[in-house]
Design brief:
alpha/beta
Length: 407
């Protein structure tokens, strides 16, 4: 019997930088597919981030749109690289194109111009950014379907851009290696004789609002609670956070530990995880914390209530703090995002941040009763175990693609 020819799956993705989407992409191409696949990657640059390179270079051919016949193509005028992208797509003759969280500008091309196969958009937060209406309209004219990382991502696309394409929701999952030492992920017990440790992790950028974690420690200590915090990550807001820590006299009580290669020690060392973001399409670090038995406090906006089961694995509280009030409290830069998704009202509306006093109250609700804390820790572990692993997510993605390949 003749062997089935592999389907050519072409990815449009940024592989030069490392973020949540890029890590998922690298792990996805390394996962065994449900049917024969040849991965092809067309990126803005041919260079690949060192941490992503081993998986991507082993499992996918990579072409950068920034060169042609070995010669560099300048960034401007943008049409030059766009033309090269179109050339590569038609040269590679894919069976399906998957666009990873990018709104590609194709306004220079005819509205009747189509790529030679079905096209899917993987939505992982790109919809929250402000896009020119003409750009979004032209982009979705080429899209046949959408895979969304959460129900919040699906509704944001539908409400903001009025898309009519079918949307399959494939909830985010733990990336491989998060629970490599799963045997130690057992229900937690609060320890006497040491401070209560809060944790936060992510890029140190305005949208993450890590200043709230600093102010929550202050609010708890004002109430007589021996509280500290650890913040993992790097980014442009580090200097502002350092200044806030000094201003509030919390040197040694709030530690910025930078980018960690092994997050297991981080999650094992904290008692409560705080997701302080003003917007979040899902909240991957929330399920990572829960997998380690750490209860989570998060805002009841965007996809966070899909990652944190309110009253079961943690608490989702309604944010009430305005951006102006947050800036006045922290002097930190303000993210310009105009709208976030409010699940309770099923609408898009301006964002608000979590009030530090409300965060402190939520932390006390989780930790004042040791038996209740241990029960929530056990529920968090059980919830993540029941969600399905990263392999199951990859299989779901392939099943969605198979429908379009067969149509």
């Amino acid at each position: 019997m003749k062997a089935k020819m592999p389907k050519r799956l072409l990815h449009l993705v940024n592989v030069r930088t490392v973020g949540g989407v890029e890590r998922i992409f690298a792990d996805f191409v390394a996962h065994s597919p449900l049917f024969p696949i040849q991965h092809l990657t067309v990126a803005d640059h041919g260079a690949t981030a060192p941490t992503l390179a081993p998986a991507i270079l082993r499992h996918s051919q990579i072409c950068g749109i920034n060169t042609f016949l070995g010669l560099p193509i300048p960034r401007r005028p943008r049409i030059l690289r766009a033309l090269n992208r179109e050339r590569l797509i038609r040269k590679l003759k894919p069976d399906l194109i998957l666009i990873w969280n990018q709104f590609i500008d194709i306004r220079a091309f005819s509205q009747d111009s189509r790529w030679p196969c079905p096209v899917l958009h993987y939505e992982h937060g790109g919809a929250w950014y402000q896009q020119a209406p003409a750009l979004a309209e032209a982009f979705f004219r080429r899209i046949d379907g959408v895979i969304a990382v959460s129900q919040a991502a699906r509704r944001t696309l539908q409400l903001k851009y009025q898309i009519t394409q079918p949307v399959d929701v494939c909830l985010n999952a733990l990336c491989p290696g998060v629970l490599s030492a799963k045997s130690v992920a057992e229900p937690r017990t609060l320890k006497s004789g040491r401070p209560l440790i809060l944790g936060g992790a992510g890029r140190l950028v305005p949208v993450k609002c890590f200043g709230l974690l600093v102010l929550t420690v202050k609010a708890l200590r004002t109430r007589g609670v021996d509280a500290e915090a650890v913040i993992a990550g790097t980014g442009s807001e580090r200097a502002a956070l350092e200044a806030l820590i000094v201003k509030e006299g919390l040197q040694g009580k709030v530690r910025l530990v930078g980018l960690l290669d092994d997050m297991s020690a981080f999650y094992q060392g904290i008692d409560v995880y705080i997701s302080s973001s003003m917007r979040e399409p899902f909240g991957l670090t929330c399920i990572e914390a829960a997998a380690w038995g750490v209860p989570v406090v998060a805002a009841a906006i965007d996809g966070l209530p899909e990652a944190v089961r309110d009253g079961v694995t943690g608490l989702c509280i309604k944010p009430t703090l305005s951006r102006e009030a947050y800036h006045a409290l922290t002097q930190a830069p303000i993210d310009p995002s105009p709208l976030v998704y409010w699940p309770g009202e099923d609408c898009l509306a301006p964002p608000k941040m979590l009030d530090p006093e409300m965060l402190a109250e939520a932390v006390l609700r989780l930790t004042s009763d040791h038996d209740h804390y241990r029960q929530m820790s056990a529920q968090a572990i059980a919830d993540i175990a029941g969600r399905g692993d990263f392999g199951a997510l990859c299989d779901d993605l392939y099943r969605v693609m198979a429908r379009y390949l067969e149509s």
